[in-house]
Design brief:
With 187 residues, the protein is α/β, with parallel strands linked by helices. Helices cover 19% and strands 16% of the residues. Helix 2 packs parallel to helix 3. The relative contact order is 0.17.
């Protein structure tokens, strides 16, 4: 029993506890910049399973395949543009992810691919309270490089697909991707 004021000693030596340097401990980093690249493409099999999209507001300037009928790149600033139709959102993973999810929640028609950080304030606000369905993918994804090749290693965290709008939730429920679908009731 530990009494108030006593320090608890860990059951394992401190040298076994590995922590990243403070500057690397930011939540929602999309792949550490281990290869110097910030842009990663959604695996094509995911897009094939989910059908056609009208807009990709986070598209790379140069891409080996089109993700939607219309694309906004960093030059267009997709956050500032009007979104129409069914949106595919694979946002920058970092401190701005919440801005993209806020816009998607307001738009209400599309599917987002993000890390499954279910405990974060962002997840509670823009997914648990705003989305119509989610699908936790069984394995960690291997995103693709700008050359159209799979990354050498899986990404750094589990991923989740987030559906906004009943039709997109139904799409997730019926798709053949390996994972677990959960219907949500937006509040």
């Amino acid at each position: 029993m530990i009494l108030m004021g006593q320090k608890m000693t860990p059951a394992y030596p401190k040298e076994y506890v590995k922590t990243a340097p403070l500057k690397q401990q930011r939540a929602w980093e999309h792949e550490r910049k281990w290869n110097g690249k910030e842009e990663w493409l959604t695996p094509p099999y995911i897009l094939k399973a989910l059908g056609e999209f009208d807009l990709d507001p986070c598209a790379p300037k140069f891409r080996p395949w089109d993700i939607a009928r219309k694309h906004y790149t960093i030059d267009d600033n997709g956050l500032m543009q009007k979104w129409t139709g069914r949106v595919w959102l694979n946002p920058p993973y970092g401190t701005q992810t919440k801005l993209w999810l806020a816009k998607m929640a307001g738009h209400g028609n599309g599917i987002a691919l993000i890390y499954a950080r279910t405990e974060t304030q962002m997840f509670f606000r823009y997914i648990w309270q705003a989305a119509d369905g989610i699908m936790f993918l069984r394995r960690r994804l291997r995103f693709y490089t700008m050359n159209g090749e799979p990354a050498k290693a899986p990404c750094g965290a589990p991923s989740v697909l987030v559906a906004y709008g009943k039709e997109n939730a139904e799409c997730l429920r019926k798709c053949w991707l390996d994972g677990k679908y959960i219907a949500l009731i937006p509040s």
